Structures are given as C-alpha cells and as structure tokens.
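SUBJECT: A protein chain and its fold
Encoding: whole-number codes for local backbone shapes
RECORD BEGINS BELOW THIS LINE
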Amino acid sequence: MQADVSGRDPTATFHAALRHVAQRLPNVRPVLAGAGAVLERLPGDPEAPRLIAAEPVEDDGVRPHRVPGTPTTGFSAFLDGTQQSRVLAWIGAAPIVYGCVAAAVRVRAARRLVTWREPIEQRRVYAPLTYTVDAALADAFPRQTLVDTATPDAGGVIPPPHPTLLLERARLAVSRDREEIERRLAERWCRDEQRTLLIDGGIGASEAVAQAPCVVGVVKSHRTLYVDGAALQAVLALSRGERSTVIRIAPRGRSSVLSWYLRLRTHDGHDALWGLVRVEVADTERSVPLPDHARVAGRADTVSRWLLAELEPISLPDPRWDKMVYGVRNVEEYLKARV
C-alpha cells in the first residue's frame, strides 16, 4: 500500500487521510480538523415507505399467533456491522469522503460474549472520480482504496455534479461496502459453523446465507411492510409475544426467505411499529408443493421464543432499544471501540 511522506498508511485513520490530502493535493480544500461532516448524520433521501403483499405459507391469510411456551435462549452468536464516513476535502463542488466499515461476530462463551475469529475492517476514500480532473487524486491513494461515487447508471447516464447528491452517493457507497463485509463474514460462519447465528438485518442478499438453517435475520426497520389490507391491520395489532403468520418474501435480486413479524415489547402509548421486528429464516419449503404447516409453525415459534429470551438486559441508551437484542448491541459497542 502506498504510504504518505511519513511512511504511514494514508487510510489508517481519518486524520491520517486528512494529513495526506493536505500534503499531496494542493488544489483541494481540506476540511478543518474535526470539522468534516459526518455523512450518517446528514438528512438523506430515504426509501419511500411501501406496502407489498407477500404469499402466506402457514395459513390461508395473515393472522396473529400467540407464541407458546417459555422463552429460551437459542442463539450462540450475533453478527452486525458499523460504518463511519466524513468529508475530507472538496475539489470545487465535489466532496472527497473518508469511510470506514467493520463487521464482527460475537459468540457466547462462559456467560460472556467474545469475538469469533477476526473482525473485518475496511477503510477507503470515496470521490466522484468521473468529475475530478486533478490526476493527483488518483495518484495520492492506492487504487484499491479509491471508490468512484459518480459512476454512470445502467443507461450510461452520469449523475449531475450537485454537491448534496454526491454526498448521498458517497454515503450509499459506504453502506454498500458495509453490507458486503457483513455478507462475507456471514458466509464464512455458514461455511465453518453449525451453531445458530443471529444477523442484524435481512439474510436474502446471499444465497449461501439465505439457505443456511443455522442463520436467523432480524429486521428492525420497516420502510417496506410485506403486508397490506387486512394483513397489515393484523400485523400492526400484534401484542407482545405474538407473531404473524409465516410468509414467503422473494424481492427481485434477493433469495427467497420465510419471514414473519414478531412483537417484542408492549406498544401501549407508542406508535404501531414500536417493538415490532421482522424475522427471516431459510425457505425450506420453497421446493415443497404443499408446505408442511406444522413444521413451518414450529420453526417460527421456536425462533420467536429465542428472540423473546434476548430482551434482557435492555439495550439502552440506544434509541432502537425496543427492537434491539442485547447481543447485537454488544457487537455494535465492540466495533465502535475499534473504529
């Protein structure tokens, strides 16, 4: 890897990258130390909320089911990732962004959570190279650490050089890198382990992960709800300890999974999505002409009991504590200490 004039890795830290830019790129405007905008805090253009009907697998329609039995711990490990991105400098209206992503698995061992193998970390520089005429930028950092945030779309159209748009594209590029290393780590677990892993987020981005019986995905955000009409009302009315009918989700470009909604906490006095998560597991019924309803329901009840057993300790002070299990919170805190 190319080093700066002091011999250090120019992408090792934000401040190392900032010094490197100031030394190597006299025609750019570096930000003042500590003043680089944190992209994760900027208002963005979020995905429009959507309702998409999904195919029920367990029942003829979506209805509530009380999760039977006593909550019991069933997860051996937890996987999550994190990202941090800040503006380093500007070339005209074009932002140069420093991004760091990391992912880790934490496993239960003697009533503690410890790190499984090595976490994955990646640090890169994100810039609209398509617009950047200063060739020194491409020479300042190793090519593998540079990401072009102004690549043409499928139709060959280059995005307009609007500063806000380019910042949003940088943030999305960092998010894609985080999702990629989370996927790599999940696939590594599925290849080498049989213990049950809880992943923070969906599992359909990887066929290997989506087909693994040892993986459970938990989705906390609900910009897309996979129910509508009476099914939507049934899901939003779920009480604590109730789950919905199991449905099949197969969005374009992602693997098919079985999924259901589960209310983790009482939402009295809160909005309808408070304490509501959507669970994803392998679609073991996709090649079966007539799904075994008892098998599907049994799997959903078992995994739901595992999740209900993970509500203590509460993941405060995280604002998402109503939907977050403590194992995921532990992974996030561990990664924050590293990056």
Residues 1-6 have pLDDT under 50 and may be disordered. Helices lie at 14-24, 135-140, 163-192, 207-210, 229-236, 293-308, 326-338. The radius of gyration is 22 Å. The first strand starts at residue 29 and ends at 30.
